[in-house]
Amino acid sequence: MYDVLVAKTIRVLAPRMGCAPGSLIYDKLWYGIYIFYINIIKTAGLLVIAYILGIVPYVLLFMLALGALRLYSFGVHVKSSFLCTLIGLAVTLSSTYISLHVNIPIALKIPILLACVVSFVAYAPAQTKKRPIPEKQRNPFRKKSLYLLTTVIFMVFIFYPFPAVSNLLFIAAVCQAVNILPATYKILKEE
To answer: How far is CA 66 from CA 26, 39, 141, in A?
Structure first.
């Protein structure tokens, strides 16, 4: 399904960008368009489910917080787009459910958030063999990811009177801290 959409799109874009089939630019363009369509369809499906469940604002907040944290800290990617979709749905919907129905005390949040900071300091930005990060770029990425994490942690405390929002931000920080751990890469057989 995606291949047909990508082929139609690339027929229009490739000539305009002056790239021929088989070139590195063409291959990058094909891959980028492919990922774009996968993400659009995944996000649309997630938002339809969230709409049916009446939790769209919470799902959007979780996606925003997790996306912001992932921006500079990166993290594991699952090889299969189908498995990625299933994991993404499960994590987003279960995180939203937990944030709405479980009271997570601040006394529990504080040590876990400190562990998140340790994870970010030690492992952000996460890299793979396929996507190594040059040493010159590692420190700026680490600093930016720590700024974003600090902002999210600060917001957890600001929104403490609103448990669902505070919990969503907290869970997003925990999810991303786990996402960059070497153990997560091993479990998902990523290098």
So the answer is: 30, 15, 16
The length of the chain, given as a count of residues: 191
Residue ending a domain, choose from 53, 68, 89: 53
What does the angle CA 109 – CA 107 – CA 91 come to, to the nearest 5 degrees?
A: 25
- Token readout for 45 is 């499906």
**Total count of domains within the chain:** 2
Give the range of the structural domain holding residue 30, as residue numbers without chain letter. Answer: 1-53
* Both tokens assigned to 99: 């944030």
Q: 50, 35, 144, 151: which is closest to 99 by C-alpha?
A: 50
pLDDT band at 171 (very low <50, low <70, confident <90, very high): very high
**pLDDT tens figures, 79-125:** 887 888 899 999 999 999 999 999 999 999 999 999 999 999 998 89
